[in-house]
TrEMBL record:
Pfam families from the UniProt entry: DUF7800 (PF25077), PhoD (PF09423)
Native source species: Actinomadura darangshiensis
This protein's name: Alkaline phosphatase family protein
Superkingdom of origin: Bacteria
Gene3D superfamilies per UniProt: PhoD-like phosphatase (3.60.21.70)
C-alpha cells in the first residue's frame, strides 16, 4: 500500500480554487475526494531525488466553502488517519465579503523540549482550532515568514538521522548537507507533531524563507558568498536547500495560473515522466537560482478582495557584487515597485526581515554598511565586514538604498499617487525573536503605515541576547547610533517611526484582522500548559 510521507498540506487558495500538496513513498495517483460534495480531483506524482510529490489543484468551488476531504492514493484512503482524534481536514476557500484574517509568525524550532524552546505557538494555535470548532474564529490564511526549518542548528533527532548517513565530523559538521538531509528536516518539522500536521492540512498556508532555512546569515554580503562557495561541501548544501524549498514551500505559494506557466515546474514534470527522476533538473535550477538571483523570482503577490498581500524574498534575490549591494536585485525591485499600487483597502508587504527596526538597531546597521563600504577607509571596511557577520547586521537598514527605494514606493502609495490610498499599509515580518508594533509618524501619507513583527513561533531569545535587544528597543538608545551613522555620512531616513507596542519576547503567533477599512492585530502566546493567551492588541486604523 502506498503511504503518505508528509502532508496533506492545504496551500494556495482563492475564492474558487484550492491546492493540496503531499509527499508519498512511491509514484502514484493522488485524489482529493468528498463524494457528498461531488469533489474528486486528482494528479500523478512527480519524482525528485527518489522522493515523490503530488500537487492536486481543485477548481469550481464556492466562496467560503468548508468541504471535508479525504486523500485517496491508488484506490486506498490514507487520510484522515483512523483514530487520530482530530476533526476532518477541510478545504477552506476565501470569503467574498472583503474580510480577511491572516495569522503569521516565524522562527520555529521542532522537535525539542519545552525546557529548550518553550511551548509551540503553532501547536497551541492548532489545539485551539481543533477543540473550539465553530466557537472560535478561524484564520483565512496562515503565513509563515521565515525559518520554517533550521538547517544549521540541529536537534538530537536530526543528528541521529545524519549519523546514519555520514561519518562523524564530516563537513558540514552539525548541519544538514544535501537534499536528502533537508527532506528529513521537513518531516521532523511538519509530520511528527500531530497537531501541526492537522493544522497544515486544514488552514491555507503560505511561506517565505529566511536565513536558517538555508544557513545563518545567508547572503549577508558578497564576502560571505565568496567564503561559502570556497567550501567544498557548499554546492550540495545550497542546491539541496534551494531545491527542497522550491518543492516543500514555494510550489504551494503559486496560484494555479502561475504554476501552469512556470518553466521549472514543467521541466520537473517532464523529466520525471521521461527519466523517472527530476533530481538533476532540480539541482541545476537551484544552483542557477543561487548564482544568478535574477534567474528566478521567489516573491509573489495575491489579491484577496480589497487586500493585496505582497510577499518579498529578502534572501535569495539580493544584489551582492563588489560594487553594488541591494536587498533586491534590479529585476526583483522593479517587480515590487509594480505591485505597490493603490486602489485597495489594505496593502500588506510581508518580508522575513523587519523593514522598520528599533532605531538603535536601524542606525547601527546603516552605519555598519557605510563603514564596510569604505566610508572610514579600507582598514575600517575590513573590520566593518567582520562586525556585520558577527552581529547579523543585514536587515533592510543595512541596505540603505533599498530601504529608501521601498520608502519612496510606500509614500507614493500612501499619498494616493498610485491610485486611491489604502487605509493601511502594513509590513509583516519575523526574524528577530521578539514581537512589536512600530508606527510611521512622519511621511505625509493618507494611509496608516506600520510594521507588525511576530517572532518566534518557537525559539525564544534568552539571557544577554534578550537584554541587549530590550536596551536597543528603548528610545534613548537610538541617539548615539544615529550620531555614528551621521559620522559615516549616512543620510537621515526618509520616514520617521516610533515603537508603540511591545517588545514581547515570548513564543507567539499574531493575527491581522481586516474588515472594510479597519485593520487590527492581536498577538497571542502559549501559557498555562501550552494554551494560547492574548499578549497584545492594537488598532492600526
Amino acid at each position: 500500500m502506498t503511504a503518505l510521507v508528509l502532508g496533506p498540506h492545504l496551500r494556495h487558495v482563492s475564492h474558487h480554487t484550492a491546492t493540496v500538496w503531499v509527499e508519498t513513498d512511491r509514484p502514484c495517483e493522488v485524489r482529493v475526494v468528498n463524494q457528498e460534495h461531488g469533489l474528486d480531483a486528482s494528479s500523478r506524482t512527480f519524482t525528485a531525488h527518489g522522493h515523490h510529490y503530488g500537487l492536486v489543484e481543485i477548481d469550481g468551488l464556492a466562496p467560503e466553502a468548508r468541504i471535508p476531504y479525504e486523500i485517496v492514493i491508488d484506490g486506498e484512503t490514507v487520510w484522515p488517519e483512523s483514530g487520530s482524534g482530530f476533526p476532518p481536514s477541510q478545504i477552506r476557500t476565501l470569503r467574498e465579503d472583503g474580510g480577511l484574517r491572516i495569522s503569521f509568525g516565524s522562527c520555529r524550532r521542532s522537535p525539542g523540549t519545552v525546557d529548550l524552546f518553550g511551548y509551540d505557538a503553532l501547536a497551541a494555535f492548532s489545539d485551539r482550532l481543533r477543540t473550539g470548532g465553530d466557537a472560535v474564529t478561524w484564520p483565512d490564511v496562515l503565513l509563515m515568514v521565515g525559518d520554517q526549518v533550521y538547517a544549521d542548528e540541529l536537534t538530537e533527532e536530526m543528528r541521529a538521522f545524519i549519523k546514519g548517513r555520514r561519518a562523524a565530523g564530516e563537513p558540514p559538521d552539525g548541519e544538514v548537507a544535501d537534499y536528502e538531509d533537508y527532506t528529513h528536516l521537513y518531516k521532523l518539522a511538519w509530520h511528527d507533531d500531530a497537531a501541526v500536521r492537522w493544522l497544515l492540512s486544514t488552514v491555507p498556508t503560505f511561506t517565505v524563507f529566511d536565513d536558517h532555512d538555508i544557513r545563518d546569515d545567508w547572503n549577508t554580503s558578497h564576502t560571505w558568498r565568496k567564503e561559502m562557495w570556497a567550501q567544498p561541501w557548499w554546492k550540495d548544501r545550497i542546491t539541496g536547500g534551494i531545491g527542497s524549498y522550491w518543492i516543500y514551500q514555494h510550489l504551494g505559494n503559486m496560484s494555479p495560473q502561475d504554476r501552469a506557466s512556470d518553466p521549472t515546474f514543467k521541466a520537473l514534470r517532464t523529466a520525471s515522466d521521461t527519466t523517472g527522476d527530476a533530481g538533476a533538473v532540480l539541482d541545476e535550477f537551484a544552483e542557477k537560482a543561487d548564482k544568478q538571483p535574477d534567474s528566478t523570482r521567489w516573491s509573489y503577490a495575491h489579491d484577496w478582495g480589497n487586500t493585496r498581500l505582497i510577499v518579498v524574498d529578502s534572501r535569495c534575490s539580493r544584489l551582492l557584487t563588489p560594487d553594488r549591494r541591494g536587498m533586491l536585485d534590479d529585476d526583483e525591485f522593479d517587480w515590487l515597485d509594480s505591485q505597490c499600487q493603490g486602489g485597495m483597502d489594505h496593502l500588506l508587504i510581508a518580508s522575513s526581515l523587519p523593514y522598520l527596526l528599533p532605531m538603535a538597531i536601524h542606525h547601527a546597521e546603516s552605519w555598519n554598511e557605510a563603514v564596510a563600504g569604505g566610508a572610514w577607509g579600507k582598514r575600517a571596511a575590513g573590520v566593518g565586514e567582520k562586525i556585520r557577520q558577527a552581529a547579523d547586521l543585514e536587515h533592510w537598514a543595512a541596505f540603505e538604498k533599498s530601504f529608501r527605494d521601498v520608502a519612496a514606493d510606500v509614500i507614493a502609495v500612501g499619498r494616493g499617487e498610485r491610485g486611491p490610498a489604502p487605509a493601511s499599509i502594513s509590513f509583516l515580518s519575523g526574524d528577530i525573536h521578539y514581537s512589536y508594533l512600530a508606527r510611521v509618524t512622519e511621511a505625509g501619507t493618507q494611509s496608516k503605515v506600520s510594521q507588525i513583527v511576530c517572532s518566534p513561533l518557537r525559539n525564544p531569545l534568552i539571557g544577554k541576547f534578550r537584554l541587549a535587544n530590550r536596551i536597543a528597543y528603548s528610545r534613548a538608545a537610538g541617539g548615539p547610533f544615529r550620531l555614528l551613522a551621521k559620522l559615516a555620512k549616512v543620510p537621515v531616513p526618509p520616514i520617521r517611526w516610533r515603537m508603540t507596542d511591545g517588545p514581547w519576547f515570548h513564543n507567539a503567533i499574531a493575527t491581522v484582522e481586516l474588515s472594510g477599512r479597519d485593520c487590527n492585530v492581536v498577538w497571542e502566546t502559549p501559557w498555562d500548559g501550552g494554551k494560547l493567551n492574548e499578549m497584545g492588541r492594537a488598532t492600526i486604523v
